[in-house]
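To whoever is on call:

I kicked off a structure prediction for a single chain this morning and the downstream step that reads the tokens threw a length-mismatch warning. I double-checked the sequence; it's 315 residues and nothing unusual in it as far as I can see. Pasting both halves so you can look.
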Amino acid sequence: MAWNNESFVTEFILGGLSSSSELQIFYFLFFSMVYAATMLGNLLIVLTIMLEPRLHSPMYFLLGNLSFIDMSLASFATPKMIADFLSEHKAISFEGCITQVFFLHLLGGAEIVLLIAMSLDRYVAISKPLRYLTIMSQRRCIGLVTLSWIVGIFHALSQLAFTVNLPFYGPNEVDSFFCDLPLVIKLACIHTYILGVFMISTSGMIALVCFILLVISYTIILVTVRQCSSGGSSKALSTCSAHFTVVTLFFGPCIFIYVWPFTNFPIDKVLSVFYTIFTPLLNPVICTLRNKDVKDSMRKLSSRMFKSRKTVQTL
């Protein structure tokens, strides 16, 4: 089918979080601080896990990769949103919009697989502690992380396979602060309901099925934990509860938005903010910074850096 390229939409107008000009400066300052805290917190975790030998274990290797994905997830749209708070014309090019959609599904798919890998890691650590390091070897952990990125890439490409060829000739206003696939597809100038349901509901169904599997896996883990000693059981329960909290924070908004892709709820925009901005900030706080080993390693690393700087200044 041939289309007239002269009238093709070259940019989309983003609705943003609010049309109130009085709130723009507040939003700019608030989300700038949230974004800075997200990047610094996750970067600190990645560096601590890389530089501290006692954290060179499968669990912390996976947590470090989770922090890296969270930094990327917080960066695909948030800087653009923060800049738009100071701009009256909140526009994004067609190529930029497609890029946002690609990275959202790439990182979302990668994080889903990584969360599943983390649940597998905890199951092996609790049910087969003597074979833990053999089963969760360095090679296998690298393989799981590589698999998460491969799945993310294929998932993102599957979502964009038909989207890039849709005809966009009329409406170009996206009622969000970034290009989300359900909102973009609705702007195409053909009947896209069946195509949209196929593409977007697959995301919702994948998220829902994976969430149910993770709930079952963590239930099995917690049942196994009850058979352990009180000390080890308490530590394992704390770790698993933290992981499950992260799983719920990530999957909850995704399922709500993508299971009903063409139904707009007032809370959709809030949920989009939550899983693209706040979840990457909360993940390190819930899953890593409350971990005693990580906190001790951070203090040890900062003390080492302080002594090193003091030595250099003395010389």
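Update from on-call: the warning came from a stale cache, not from the record. Cleared it. Sanity check on the structure: The two ends are 73 Å apart (CA to CA).
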